[in-house]
Amino acid sequence: MLNNGLLKPVTSHPGDTYLNKMASYCLTVTRLRLALGTGARRFHVSTAFSAKAKVAMSRFEPGSSINYEKMHENINIVRRRLNRPLTLSEKIVYGHLDDPAGQEIDRGRTYLRLRPDRVAMQDATAQMAMLQFISSGLPKVAVPSTIHCDHLIEAQIGGAQDLQRAKEVNQEVYNFLATAAAKYGVGFWKPGSGIIHQIILENYAYPGVMLIGTDSHTPNGGGLGAICIGVGGADAVDVMAGIPWELKCPKVIGVRLTGTLSGWTSPKDVILKVAGILTVKGGTGAIVEYHGPGVDSISCTGMATICNMGAEIGATTSVFPYNHRMKTYLEKTGRGEISSVADQFKDDLVPDEGCEYDQVIEINLSELKPHINGPFTPDLAHPVSEIGAIAKKSGWPLEVKVGLIGSCTNSSYEDMGRAASLAKQALDKGLKCKAQFTVTPGSEQIRATIERDGYAKILSDVGGIVLANACGPCIGQWDRKDVKKGEKNTIVTSFNRNFTARNDANPATHAFVTSPEIVTALALAGTLNFNPETDYLTAPNGEKFKLEPPSGDELPSRDFDPGQDTYQHPPAESSSVNVDVNPSSNRLQLLEPFDKWHGKDLEDMRVLIKVKGKCTTDHISAAGPWLKFRGHLDNISNNLLIGAVNIENDAVNKVKNQLTGEYGGVPDVARHYKANGVNWVVVGDENYGEGSSREHAALEPRHLGGRAIIVKSFARIHETNLKKQGLLPLTFADPQDYDKIRPDDKISITGLKSFAPGKTLTAVIKHSDGSQQSISLNHTFNDTQIEWFKAGSALNRMKELQ
Description:
Blueprint: H1 18-36, H2 45-48, H3 68-82, H4 88-94, E1 111-114, E2 118-122, H5 123-136, E3 145-148, H6 159-169, H7 171-184, E4 187-189, H8 196-203, E5 210-213, E6 227-230, H9 233-240, E7 245-248, E8 251-258, H10 267-278, E9 286-291, H11 300-308, E10 317-319, H12 324-332, H13 336-344, E11 359-364, E12 371-373, E13 381-383, H14 384-394, E14 400-406, H15 413-428, E15 436-440, H16 444-452, H17 455-461, E16 464-466, E17 489-493, E18 509-513, H18 516-525, E19 537-538, E20 544-545, E21 567-568, E22 602-610, H19 617-620, H20 633-636, E23 645-646, E24 651-652, E25 655-656, E26 663-664, H21 666-675, E27 680-683, H22 696-703, E28 706-711, H23 716-724, E29 728-732, E30 746-750, E31 761-766, E32 772-778, H24 783-791, H25 794-801
Parallel strand pairs: 2-3, 2-5, 3-4, 5-6, 8-9, 8-11, 9-10, 14-15, 14-17, 15-16, 17-18, 22-27, 27-28, 28-29
Antiparallel strand pairs: 1-7, 4-21, 12-13, 19-20, 22-30, 23-24, 25-26, 29-32, 30-31, 31-32
Helix pairs in contact: 5-7, 5-9, 10-11, 12-13, 15-17, 15-18, 22-23, 24-25
Family: Belongs to the aconitase/IPM isomerase family.
GO cellular component, one term: mitochondrion
Main location: mitochondrion
């Protein structure tokens, strides 16, 4: 309880009457209010008297309790120090500080040392994360952690068949993850459970929790008032090892929502609009915090959709304030106890009145129109009413070949219900989809519930194929047969990301992201040139009809059907569990430590590739068929930068080997340089490494002999991942210096002996004509991260400190 000298403990005696107790209570309440003042946000009185009953973080971890008291204490310490109102983002982040009394706090500048509550890993990134954890030598994870098998299931035929095939093809990997989870105390969600972010929302996210996940769309949990941040596997290892986790103190972008969602406008349109405003890098280094009276018109799962796609603007994460929609969702998913205790601490789960944001965007939901973004980038925003004309003018294919709904972004019960309401209208007129149509349930619970309630049948009857509860086409796990590679075509999805070739490995596919409702309408029409708000469909009998706006229940009127039990609890005793990695495996490989820095400047490094334009982690380390090698560093390194465009020849995966004079694939040339003892650098453009959190995009260049990545600017997660693996992520002090570097240059990086935070480094560029130039390079290393570089990697440094 707060005590500033005005508060005294309330004592009770056996003879007290009820009236005496009430008088004491009321007196203390009065003292509380006097102590806190009328202008400050008041401490929630019921909290001061709440029973300190322990509430489990999840039904799977009865021994791990929610600790709102500690968060509240930390918030008060920081509020007194800063002497100002706090945003919600600040409350949750600062509420998890390792040292709230001593931590330097300056938004956008200082690094925070944090204690997240839990870790979540999807199977593609969990392989490398667990391999790194095994290398640490620690016996058990220090915080509740889970592995989710969702990335390795390829969409081919349909849910059941694809799942069975995945279990057979990936048996070695699934066995490794299951035994490693059991050995080290990690919960394991088997293949078929569902997509990591939907499982987290249903079971693990709650208001005020801080969770880190090895997937860039981890911010999905912000829809339940949580701070959920996507990271690389090395960051996850830090938290699982019980080491404070570092994050640059985020700025806070406020998005004030007014009005009410209605008609064809959906939560997805909010983030599609925000992406158009902020672009793919406008949220870098910031948390996006939604607030305002419009928030209450959005369902909890709708808020999760908005937070999920916040990854596409580079945001650290996104979050909504705790409200009755979250409370209802918690109760409907069997977590009423959590909502009750969250109610007691509600003042810590909403922003303070008068808090200040670094930037504010205002959106009137009543005026917001349905949007569709793309192609080739998720921030190219268009109103649906205009996309047909824009596509004609731009030469984009109008015919919609495939409509795909679901994914971690839009696969809730509400999403499926609204899509089914449109499909039902079409079926009533005898109409089916003109385009191919696929449906991806977000979890086994969603699949079972929409099957029970008839939505799955409606979506199938209109022409849909229900895929496995997995990521599938959203991440490129799609064995697409209807078009040939290089054939220009259009697809529309309710996914979150639409970079070139992401969904089907075809660079000519024009992918657009929108809401499930608009996807369904466009799949029915078979063309982009269709506005469901004004245009008519034609039934088989020639009748013209217009679709009524979609409708659907936010949550099932009956309880959710959990479906099959797909969770593996870690055993209490795991000393007898063996984790085997076959030395001859082409899927798994134990890690060898990277070499330490030799203590000198890095001299005469070759330019492996000078990248032209956008270079996402998909360009650096492709997904799709390469996912099978995520546990084998040497094999997956054969995809290093094969999607990046070489500025020398505008070609992909074709660079000149400066030692032989011949052209070859990027990974082949990198291997040749490494074999000959030649270090190399990559030169890149703006927002290098945007997209997925995959740390393989950092591990691969390190493994193949890279030393530095020099670019105009970085995406947050990728920059951190590079530091973790002992590489130097550096930015041009003058972005125009990018033009000074030629593909056949040699580059030396000097000043490393006095490497220090805030101190620039120098690149000496030696041209083949004998001339040379020097340019300044910036970095964001702090003292701890410089120790990672010197040790060769963060993992090496961890071992040094043991």
